[in-house]
Amino acid sequence: MGRVTRRAFTVAALSTLAVSPGATAAPQPPGTPAGARGGRGTTEMRGMWLATVANRDWPSRTGLTVARQRGELTALLDAAVRRRLNTVIFQARPAADALWPSPYEPWSRFLTGTQGKDPGWDPLGTAVTEAHARGLRLHVWFNPYRVALEEDPSRLAASHPARKHPGWTVPYGGKLYYNPGLPEVRAFVQEAMLDAVRRYPVDGVHFDDYFYPYPVAGRTFDDAAAYARHGGGFASRAAWRRDNIDRLVREMAAGVARTRPGTRFGISPFGVWRNGSTDSRGSATRAGVQTYDDLYADTRRWVREGWIDYIVPQLYWNIGQSAADYAALVPWWAEVARGSRTQLYVGEALYKEGDASQGAAWRDPDELSRHLTLAKKYPQVRGHVFFSAKEVAADPAGAMARVVAGHYRQSARPPY
């Protein structure tokens, strides 16, 4: 999900209340914001992504003490409450690693600076507990296939599954990825992710925009051997790749429902499925990336067929942007969601506000407020999610404060 978002930090980086088996809703503690859980008031998604890859939002750097890490985390949760948000999307598996004691993958190096080193506490478990104590819902965010931010597998922890199974990986564009075309890889990454869903009473499970990697000029994603072995019956390698991702989505949805019934599963893709010049069903855009063709992610199909509980397209462009106009994409996505069981939320580029390099529109602190005003015209839009937590807390351009003053004057329940 504007490209400086998840790509700049290698981040891209969601139908009922999720509870632990046999329980009801997470307890509502004293001081819970009115309307955050139950009661009367507005109903809409108000979320923020909390990115951990490359220490984008948290922790601020590697090697901090447990007390400092915990303090920074709870401060970001407090900021979500202060801004009258109701949902935090916490990145717990940024790069085939873990921010919980996983039996499948090593501890993330973004905690201690050394992959596999025990940080001395359980960040995901703490995030769930502390979010619920504040009346927030916690969605656990996974990146399915990214292994490392560099190509060299020798830099991974010795215990890393990618070192034990070197045939599972593909180096591409300076990074290392699991090969989505291998059934054994698809099974492994699901089991690794579902471990967290099994352990913690998370309210949602979230994928970002990375499936097959974003195209890199002059590079080829070398999955020829996997295609030769598993691609029989498909008209093209592109069709086979899309089927691989479709299978991941359907199987993960089933796994989440089986592991923790009621937990929601959602995805936040890059905001353009296909341009209208490519496909008459596409949007009135001229985007350089199309998820269907470049990431092999048929995001429109996932919504139309109801495979996921919610979708948060990353509409990280301003109103009037020439190649991908926010004002054109919101109605397009609203029409896609019309009549579907999949709820539509809009991903918002809070990080662009006040950044002079992003163009004149983003120097206006009212740009995001205008986004929310426009989106209210479309009943299919059930809320917004902001990228990301650091900007929600610091609000350097004052844009988030304007959103709160103009649109979030009272607390709201999530629409599930």
From TrEMBL:
Listed GO MF terms: hydrolase activity
Signal peptide: 1-25
Pfam families: GHL10
Chain segments carrying region Disordered: 21-42
Keyword list, A-Z: Hydrolase, Signal
Domain of life of the native organism: Bacteria
Protein name: Glycoside hydrolase family 10 protein
Species: Streptomyces andamanensis
